[in-house]
Amino acid sequence: MTLPSTLRLLLFLLGCLLGLILPAQAQSTAPIAAAAATAAPKRQLQAVRITEVIKLDGVLDETVWQQAPVATDFVQQRPNPGVPERHKTEVRVLYDDNNLYIGAAMHDVSPDSILREMTARDQFGNSDLFCIFLDTYHDQLNGYNFGVTPAGVQYDARYSPAGGEDFNWNAVWDARTTIRGTDWYAEMRIPYSAIRFSKQAEQLWGLNFARQRKRDNAQYFWNEVKPAVNGFVNQWGDLRGIRDVQPPLRLSLTPYVSSYVNHNPLSAEGTRRTTTSFNGGADIKWGINESFTLDATLVPDFGQVQSDNQVLNLSPFEVQFAENRQFFTEGTELFSKGNLFYSRRVGATPIGFYEVKAGQGEKLVRNPSETQLLNATKVSGRTKSGLGIGLFNAVSNDMYATVRNDETGQERQIATQPLSNYSIAVLDQSLKNNSYVSLINTNVTRFGRTYDANVTGGLFRFNDKHNAYSIDGSLVYSRRRGTVFGKDEQVSDQDGFKYAVGLGKISGNLTWGLNHTIESDRYNPNDLGILFGNNKISQAADVAYRIYKPFWKVNNMAFFGQVGQALLYKPTRYQSLYFYNGFNTTFTKSFLQIGYDLSYNAKTHDFFEPRTSPLGEYFVRVPAYTDFVAFLNSDTRKRFSYGLNAGIQHFAQDARLDRPRRMRYSFGAYPRYRVNNHLTFRYSLDWSRSNNQVGYVNGGLDEAQPLDRPFLGQVLLGRRAVSTVANVVSVAYTFTNRMSLTLRTRHYTSNVRYFDFVTLAPGGQETPADYRRTRDNTYNAFNVDAVYAWWFAPGSQISVVWKNANSPDIQANEFTPLYFSNLSNTINTPHNNSVSVKILYYLDYLAFRKRRG
C-alpha cells in the first residue's frame, strides 16, 4: 500500500500548505463561519395591482412602474459572500388578472461593462443576467426561476429536492431588454398559466431576485443566499399583496408535423436505400385544477434529438445514455425520487433484439433497435398542504424483426417485444425544515408470454429545526413475475430489496456524513430504473471543509475526504476498500480554477467481471492502486478559455503471476473560442490508455476450439491494452435570441489488443490458457448533428436537422491502431444520412378565447 514518490511529495507539500493557511484562516473567519450557518432574515416586497396595459418593450416608461415598491440593496453570494452590491439593482413587481410583471433596472459604469453574448434559449454564455425566483406554495422546497440576459435570451428552470435545478423545464412567457446609457433594463411578463398556485384570496409566495455581473464574475441576491446554509428555496424572501387572482384554465395544444428523408447505403438487399416519411402528432397540456397539470404526447417523434455518444463497452454493465427527449426531461422531478426511473427504458431497445436469429437459407432484413412509443402521459402537481402527486404512463407497440427466405423471398416476423405499459406513481409530502417523506411505485406490464416487473420504495429526509443536521433513508422492494422472453424458464430474480440510511451535518463550513446501504442478490429495478450491480453491502464516511470567503490569493477553497468499504451480500465476502481525497480552489484575480482527486483502492475482488451467476464463486483479483487526476479551468470571460485534466492509475505489482504492472493514463482538453457575441467554437479531446488491463473475453469459450482445451467450462480472461480517443467539434452561431444554428461532430475510436489469456477458476485463481483466436478489434463511432432552430412565436418552433452517422459494427474485429487511419476509414465507409423538418405550433386556449371575445 505504498504511494508513488511524486504523490507522496505532493501530499506532503499540500499538508504543509494547509498547516500554514487553515489555522490562520480558521481564526480570522471563525465568527463569520458561525454566522454563515444561519439563514439571513427574510425580506418582503409588496406587489401592486394594475389596470392599465403594460407595453412589453424593456423601457419601463409607464407611470405605474415608478409607484411600485422597490427591491434593492442586493447582497453578493459569490465570489465574496455577504458583500453589498456597488452597482445598484432596482426591481418592481406588478400584477393584473392574467399576468405577473417584473421591471428591473441594472445600473453599471459603462455600456462596455454589460456583457451580452447571444446564445440559444436556456444558455447564459458570457453574459450578464437578471432573474426572478418564485415559490408559489411557500413550502420552501419547490420553486420557479425565470431569467433574461441583456441580449434578450430567456431561460427558465424549476427547483425541487429530487431534481435540484432543472433547466429542462420550459414555460411560455415573454421578456424584453434594453441598454440605455450605462444601465440595462429587463421587462418580463409571466402569465399565470405558466405557474401553479392556490385559489386563496390572498397569496403569499416565496420570492427572490438575482443579478449576475459577468464582468466581475459576481452573483447577487436580493434576499441573501448564504453558501454555507443547506438549501436554496428556503433562503428566499416573501412576495405579498397579490389578491383576488384566480388560477386560469391551463389548456394548450402543440401539434407538430415532421418530414424525413433518409438514405442508408447499408440497407438490406432488396430494400430501398432512400426512404421518406411524414409524421404528425401533438403535445397536450391541461391544468386539471390549480395544483395539477396533465401533459401528454400523442404519436411522439423524437427523431431530431441529439445522437447518443456511442462507446465501446468492455465492462459487465450497460452504458447509461443521457436523456435528450424533451417530454422525458421536462417536469419529471417527482418521478426522479429515489433514482428508480431511468427514462431511456421507455422506447428502449426491444428485450428480444439480441436474440433474433435467421434460419438456414434466411437473411435478417429488419430488426428495429428502438421500441415504437404510442403515447406517454404524466400528471403532476402539489397541493397547498405540500403533498406532491405524480402519475406517469406510457405505452409502446409490439415490435418485430423480419427475416427473408433467400430462395422464395417469403418473409416472416419474429416478435422482439410485446405491447408494453410503463407506469409510475409518486406521493411526496413536504415537511418543515426542508424535510420530506415519499412513496414511489414503478410498474412494467408486458402482454403475451413474458414477465412483468414492479418496484415500490419509501424515502425520507428529516432535518433539524436549524437545518444543520439531517437523517435520510430509503427502503425499496422489487418484484418480477413471469417467464424470460422467448423462453419457458421463470425469471430468477423474483423478489429483492434495498435499504439505505444516512446521517450527517449539512450546513456550515465543515460538513460530514455517514451512510450504510444493502442491495440484496435478487434486487433488480432495471425494467424502469437502472442499477449497475446488486448483491452488495456498502458503508462510507465522508467529510468536507469549505472556505467561502476570499483570503490570501484565492476566492474559495474546498477539501473533501471519504473512506468506504463494500462486501458481497450473498455470500458475505470482501469486495473493496477505498480512501478518497479531493481539493479545488479558484484564484482571486485570474479566476483560474485548479484541483485534484486522489484515491487509494486496496486489493479488490471484482465479482462482476467474470459474468457468472450466482455471484461469489468466481472473481477477478485487482491489485491495489492509486488514482490521481488533476484539473484546471481558465477564466471563461476571456475570448479563449480552456479546461485541462490529466490522470494516472498506478497499480501495485501482481505477485501471483509473472505479469507486467498495470497502468492507466488519461488526458482531456476542452478549449473554447468565442469569435464575437454570435459565433463560438468548441473542441473537446478525451484520451486514455490502459496497459495490461485484465478483463473478460467475449463469452469465454470459443465453440470452434477442440473440446479438450484446458479452459473448457471456465471463464476466459485476457490481458489487453486499450486506447481510446474521443474528439468533439462544435460550432454555434446565434442569429437572434430566437434563431440559432449549431453543428456538432463527434468521432470516437477505441483499439483493443490482447497479449495473453488465462482461465479463471473459483476463488480467483488464474491459469495460463493456450487460446489462439484473435480478439483484437477497433471500434469507431462517427456522428454529425446540424440543427437550425427558429422560435417564430412563443412556444412555436421550426427546426431543420441533418444527421450523419456511420455503423460502428462495420469495422468490428478490424484492428487498426493508428488514429488517422481509423478516422480515414470511418469517414470513407458508408454513412446513414437523414434530413428532417419539424414544425411545432403552440395553441393556448386563453389566447384563443381572448381573440374570439
TrEMBL record:
<feature type="domain" description="DUF5916">
    <location>
        <begin position="247"/>
        <end position="850"/>
    </location>
</feature>
<dbReference type="InterPro" id="IPR045670">
    <property type="entry name" value="DUF5916"/>
</dbReference>
<keyword id="KW-0732">Signal</keyword>
<feature type="domain" description="Carbohydrate-binding">
    <location>
        <begin position="56"/>
        <end position="213"/>
    </location>
</feature>
<feature type="signal peptide">
    <location>
        <begin position="1"/>
        <end position="26"/>
    </location>
</feature>
<dbReference type="Pfam" id="PF19313">
    <property type="entry name" value="DUF5916"/>
</dbReference>
<dbReference type="Pfam" id="PF06452">
    <property type="entry name" value="CBM9_1"/>
</dbReference>
<protein>
    <submittedName>
        <fullName>Carbohydrate binding family 9 domain-containing protein</fullName>
    </submittedName>
</protein>
<dbReference type="InterPro" id="IPR010502">
    <property type="entry name" value="Carb-bd_dom_fam9"/>
</dbReference>
